[in-house]
């Protein structure tokens, strides 16, 4: 899973995701789609959610959805880590990668194995139709076949919400965004206090960086 530092804000979004995605034994798959413009922090939000709840799911799998080939590689790399699997991590041809990815999806679909979370990150190319042009593909083909489990997708594409529940992400509140900027700039707490007491500096930072 990618590393994240200086995560601020978004507690409301984190709480909403948890209420929707929390694992249960019910036979009902849950698909959450975090969507918004580039640079809004979709991946960072997904990372924070996964880290906050790493003990609440039996397994969390982070997959790159950049394109179909990358996703297949991500899925196939999971197989050796599954219970009862001893596959070596060596060079594989395309057919072997596809088979291993199918094996992972079959494991996720086992009856009673319902308390996992899959995160498909950066699914910015999507087409539900065959014969898609370029890197577009149907992410739904990579959902496990059983009607259980929790799936989280991050994407710039609002159209992906047809596959699940929409969780739009917007710009941070200006004060939180400025606080994050100060942290990344390694400014002191004193600077933060001075900023909050000086609206002129806050307005300057907002115009410059936000």
Describe the SSE topology.
Blueprint (H helix, E strand, L loop, with lengths): L10 H11 L8 E6 L6 H11 L6 E6 L3 H9 L17 H15 L7 E6 L28 E6 L9 E4 L5 H11 L4 H8 L2 H11 L1
Parallel strand pairs: 1-4, 1-5, 2-3, 3-4
Structure description:
The chain has 210 residues and is of the alpha/beta class. It has seven helices and five strands. It has a five-stranded parallel β-sheet. Helix 3 crosses helix 4 and helix 5 (174-184) crosses helix 7 (199-209). It is globular and about 45 Å long.
Q: Tally the helices: what do you get?
A: 7
Shape: globular
N-to-C span: 28 Å
Radius of gyration, CA atoms, in whole angstroms: 20 Å
Which band does the percent of strand residues land in?
Answer: 5-15%
Give the beta-strand count. Answer: 5
Q: In sequence order, what are the helices and strands, one letter per element?
A: HEHEHHEEEHHH
- Outline the biggest β-sheet: 5 strands, parallel
Low-pLDDT ranges: 204-210
Helix content percent band: 25-40%
Q: Please, what is the average pLDDT?
A: 82
What's the arrangement of strands in the largest beta sheet?
2-3-4-1-5
In terms of structural class, how would the helical and strand content be classed?
alpha/beta
